[in-house]
Amino acid sequence: MKRKFAFVIATVCTLIIAGCGNGGNNNSASNGNAVNSGTETAAPAATAAPAKNVTIKMFQFKVEIAEQLNALAEEYEKETGVKVEVETHGGGEDYGALLKAEIASGSEPEIFNNGGYTALVPYMDRATDLSNEPWAANLIPTSKTPATVDGKLYGMPMNVEGYGLIYNKDLFTKAGITEEPKTLPQLKDAVAKLKAAGITPFEATNEWWSMGIHLVNVGLAHQPDPKKFIEDVKAGKATIKGNPVFEQWLNLVDVIFDNAQDNKMTTDYATQVAEFASGKAAMMLQGNWTQGDIDKIDPAMHLGLLPLPISDKEGTILVGVPNNYVVNSKSAHPEEAKAFLNWLVTSETGKKYLTKEFKFIPAETNVEADAADIGQVAVAVQKQSASALGWNWDMFPDGVTQGFGAAMQEYLGGQLNRDQLLEKLDKAVQDIVKQ
Length: 435
Fold this sequence. Notes:
11 strands; disordered N terminus; four-stranded antiparallel β-sheet; globular; alpha+beta
């Protein structure tokens, strides 16, 4: 749930589109075209893990699929005799800190999540080269980028994801909003209409990662050169305070925070999604990973995805590879872990879970998924991908985004003014890079 630039994302999404046949980027449930049904390199049939009565551990952060992953693990054990123990830490937990503690305790999970780029550096002593795994040939080429070091691939991309403002189409209709707002003035106008109709415009969350990663990334992604800006901020050559893009970005933040539900300071991720899915607010800042949880409450909800604008120019959604599965070479069973990942993307059972249960937009061209599988929000991500901006937060060292999140929580609670927030975002970077 981070790091690509506009031109990279355009390339990723062009490849996704290319894999969709005539449906392309306008795939819908009615035409049945696959998301990633392009030309594939023939993958070998899924093979059983080398030994039975073996347990491998997956230490993962995606709370949205925890239940489904456990069910998948049971299926894998039935087919191969190899037990997969899934341990999930996400939502309000600091996954990175917990993974470090897990390893420091002497436990070495066979598979763990990692965002790539800077986040991969501390784990290079145990990350396994996966370049020659059978599934690697079927990856969307640019999805390899975050976990590629010196030409070698050290992680399996989990999937492709995008986020923006998910909205309830029925509540928009009730408020008399007939066109999707794409600029900040248009969004403000939609907010006014929703409030006039007695509808809460936004369901916000107090989660540090939602604000410190996803929301702050909007300001990073709109920089003329996000990578250069981030490197300059880390080097002390540039600051977030005084940056004209971040000054505009604050206007978007204020629209969301000032027009959210009353109890936003105590609303965690699960509550945010549940309240939105129950029709208690018209919009929430989240991505296609929420589809499964929304469907549990109201599978018939009519959803759309709005861009995140910071000015009178049209905004965009943000698209990237959320994370990678890293095989731990220092674990007891790395070969069994590699076999499990191969099974995940080559077996019919694994592919069914990726699309129909996880609701993932696959990163592998040989894994087909239609709109009925991945949901309305994922289809909206596809349609807007060509103009999307990227995910940039993993270019910061671990600890920076947590600092961003803490500052955003203070701003959400009214403890900081605009200048103080920007100062704290700068401080969050320098506190880490100067260590």
